[in-house]
Amino acid sequence: MKWADRNVRDFPWRRTKDPYNILVAEVMLQRTKAEQVAPVYVRFISKYPDFNSLSEAPVTEIRDSITSLGLEKRAIGLKKLAEQMVKQYHCRVPRAKDELLKLHWVGNYIANAVLCYSFGIDAPTVDANFARVFERVFSLKLNSPAQKDKRVWTFAESMMPYVRGRCRIFNLGILDLASEICTPKKPSCAVCPLNMICDYGVSILAGVGLFSRKKRS
Q1: Is there a contact between 118 and 18 (Cβ–Cβ < 8 Å)?
Q2: 202-217, pLDDT tens digit by residue?
Q3: Contact status, residue 26 vs residue 191, Cβ threshold 8 Å
Q4: What is the rounded distance in angstroms from the CA atom of residue 129 to the CA atom of residue 95?
Q5: Residues with Cβ < 8 Å from 167, sequence gap 6 or more?
Q6: Residue 186 — φ and ψ, nearest 5°?
Q7: Torsion angle of C-alpha atoms 142, 144, 146, 147, degrees rounded to 10
Q8: How does pLDDT run across 134-167, given as a tens digit for each residue?
Q9: Domains 18-117 and 128-207 share a fold
Q10: 209: left (phi over 0), alpha (psi -120 to 50) or beta
Q11: Answer CATH for 18-117 from 3.90.320.10, 3.10.560.10, 3.90.180.10, 1.10.340.30
Q12: SS3 string of the chain?
């Protein structure tokens, strides 16, 4: 969290707590880089500022607005999500996870993202990048895809009492650390703020003579 205070990246959806904006952003971010999403998101929110305007838009028009992101079924997903929010929830995004999970296109990750980023509730956002950091730091042996392994979710949730209301910066810190430093290939272990406690980092740095320390049992 100390590293995140100084280093988290700036994206437009990180400047708002509006649950509509958060939901739209998270749907767009699935399997897509944030840098690619940013300009599309800005134009989309300007054109469709709320659930009502999005629910009334033709699917073809929505698809045209996000076509550069690929994964065209997202257009149908956004349309159905907006219609559901208008008809069943009167455009009020629920604050309970079990209700969020009833929404179209919403799984554990997006539900927790809304809870954390919109409502300030301590809830981890475990994706493949998040899971990679935990897998390396703590030598967790996870199934593939790792982000769907219940053990990493349980492990992440066990950390929530320690973030003490700062879950947003905790989640963003892990996600950006994974993007900028703890990358899938050739991670920058020498400059990682977790290298003193990371099992993977210790082994890498010891191998090049930069660090020596017994791994945890």
Answers
A1: yes
A2: 988 887 655 555 444 4
A3: no
A4: 25
A5: 116, 120, 121, 122, 123, 124, 160
A6: 50, 60
A7: -150
A8: 999 999 998 888 888 999 999 999 999 999 999 9
A9: no
A10: left
A11: 1.10.340.30
A12: CHHHHHHCCCCHHHHCCCHHHHHHHHHHHCCCCHHHHHHHHHHHHHHCCCHHHHHHCCHHHHHHHHHHHCCCHHHHHHHHHHHHHHHHHCCCCCCCHHHHCCCCCCCHHHHHHHHHHCCCCCCCCCCHHHHHHHHHHCCCCCCCCHHHCHHHHHHHHHCHHHHCCCHHHHHHHHHHHHHHCCCCCCCCHHHCCCCCCCHHHHHHHHHCCCCCCCCCC
CATH T-level topology, domain 128-207: Endonuclease Iii, domain 2 (1.10.1670)
Amino acid at 39: P
Q: Where are the domains of the chain?
A: 18-117, 128-207
**CA nearest neighbour of 68 among 47, 39, 95, 99:** 39
Compute the distance between CA of residue 194 and CA of residue 192 in angstroms, rounded to an integer: 5
Question: Cis (ω within 30 of 0) for the bond into 49?
Answer: no
Looking up tokens 């290939």 gives: 185
Instruction: Name the CA dihedral angle for 120, 41, 73, 104, rounded to a multiple of 10 degrees.
Output: 20
- pTM given for the model: 0.92
